[in-house]
What does this fold into?
Amino acid sequence: MQKTILLLAIILAGTISIAGVSADAFKPPRQQMAAGVPAEEVICMTGYQLMVKNDGSAACVLPDTAERLFSAGWGEIIEGGVTMDVDTNDDAVKDLEEQMQLEDEGQADESEEKVEKKISLSESMDMSGG
It folds into this structure.
C-alpha cells in the first residue's frame, strides 16, 4: 500500500504545475542543462512543450511547433513534463520568452553579441557627450 502511494506521488510530482513563481526563479532550458538537469527533466513554462533535440539538448516550444518539429525529425516530444506557471505580466518573463525563442531558433549567442555591441556603443556615446 505504501509503495502504491509513493508511486502515485512520484507520478503526480512529474505532472504538477508550480504556481506563482517569479521569472527570476525560472531558467531557460540551456541554463537548466548547464546546471546539471537532464534534458528529459527540464522544466518548461506553462503553455510550452518539452522536446529533446537530436543532439540531446532540451527545448521548450509551443505545442503546434512541437508537432511540426517532430514530424520533420528534429527531435522527440517529452510527454508529461513538469511545467511552471510564471507571472506573464513581468517584464523579465517577456525577456525570458524572447531568449527561449532565440535559443529554439539557434540565435541566442548571436543575440547576446548584438546586445554587447549596443552596450559598448551607448557607453562610447555617453563618454563623448559629457
About this structure: The first helix runs from residue 2 to 15.
